[in-house]
């Protein structure tokens, strides 16, 4: 029976980078070209800046950086410990961006209660809580390698599973935020449903869906190196028997 060799992750990594650049370009264009729609009833320049920072921090800071952290083990050369340290630092940076991004949304005269009413806000709070718990578990595991070796081996599959779920939840939360925003814009009086802004927002949603699919696929795809190691081990075992 022929054994199929897994393909190199390089094409998936390239597609992930292209998708990330596309998403970055779309969210920056949305924030710069249509910034007046973020706070249409506010005359405060500070409120406008915080409103524009929210999608930038949550998309570029949280989703793109955390996606890059997930893919570190697939492309970064070096020892396993070095890859873990880079992964931990990138996830810490993504977590900081996510916390500050939520703070920008709750900042201002409206307060927390006025902004905590939608499915988007509920999902965002759950997502950042899971993200923080994941990072804390990784931090404790990294600095207590010897003492927590047995525990780390046990929880590693769950850490990977919850990490990918949290990443998917972050993308889903962003999608609900885009839907909430575009629905608000389209239900305004004399608001058209076919505007340049709606095209940008819809394209951003599709770009996020593509990015998340590619990142998760690249993360779960077996690497050629590990496959060759397993194949060599199985062949040696057959020769011994």
Automatic annotation (TrEMBL):
Q: Which InterPro entries match?
A: CYB561/CYBRD1-like (IPR043205), Cyt_b561/ferric_Rdtase_TM (IPR006593)
In terms of superkingdom, the source organism counts as Eukaryota
Q: Which GO MF terms are attached to this record? A: metal ion binding; transmembrane ascorbate ferrireductase activity
Q: What are the Cytochrome b561 domain coordinates in residue numbering?
A: 15-220
What the entry lists under Gene3D superfamilies is as follows: 1.20.120.1770
Keyword field contains Zinc-finger: no
User: Looking at the keywords, is tRNA processing present?
Assistant: no
Coiled-coil ranges from the UniProt annotation: none
Q: Which GO terms describe its cellular component?
A: membrane
EC number(s) in its UniProt entry?
A: 7.2.1.3
Under Pfam families, the record lists: Cytochrom_B561
User: According to its UniProt record, where is this protein mainly located?
Assistant: membrane
Name the catalysed reactions.
Fe(3+)(out) + L-ascorbate(in) = monodehydro-L-ascorbate radical(in) + Fe(2+)(out) + H(+)
Which protein, by its recorded name, is this? ascorbate ferrireductase (transmembrane)
């Amino acid at each position: 029976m022929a054994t199929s060799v897994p393909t190199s992750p390089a094409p998936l990594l390239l597609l992930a980078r292209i998708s990330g650049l596309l998403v970055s370009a779309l969210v920056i264009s949305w924030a710069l070209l249509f910034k007046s729609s973020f706070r249409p009833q506010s005359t405060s320049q500070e409120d406008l800046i915080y409103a524009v920072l929210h999608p930038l921090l949550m998309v570029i800071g949280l989703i793109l950086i955390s996606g890059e952290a997930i893919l570190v083990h697939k492309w970064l050369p070096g020892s396993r410990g070095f890859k873990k340290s880079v992964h931990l630092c990138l996830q810490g940076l993504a977590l900081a961006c996510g916390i500050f991004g939520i703070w920008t949304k709750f900042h201002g005269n409206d307060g927390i209660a006025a902004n905590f009413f939608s499915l988007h806000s509920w999902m965002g709070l759950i997502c950042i809580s899971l993200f923080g718990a994941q990072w804390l578990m990784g931090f404790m595991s990294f600095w207590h390698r010897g003492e927590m070796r047995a525990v780390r081996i046990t929880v590693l599959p769950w850490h990977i599973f919850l990490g990918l779920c949290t990443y998917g939840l972050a993308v889903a939360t962003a999608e609900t935020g885009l839907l909430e925003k575009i629905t608000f814009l389209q239900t305004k009086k004399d608001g058209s449903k076919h505007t340049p802004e709606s095209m940008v927002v819809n394209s951003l949603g599709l770009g996020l869906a593509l990015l998340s699919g590619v990142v998760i696929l690249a993360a779960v795809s077996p690497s050629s190196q590990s496959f060759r190691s397993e194949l060599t081990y199985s062949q040696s075992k057959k020769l011994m028997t």
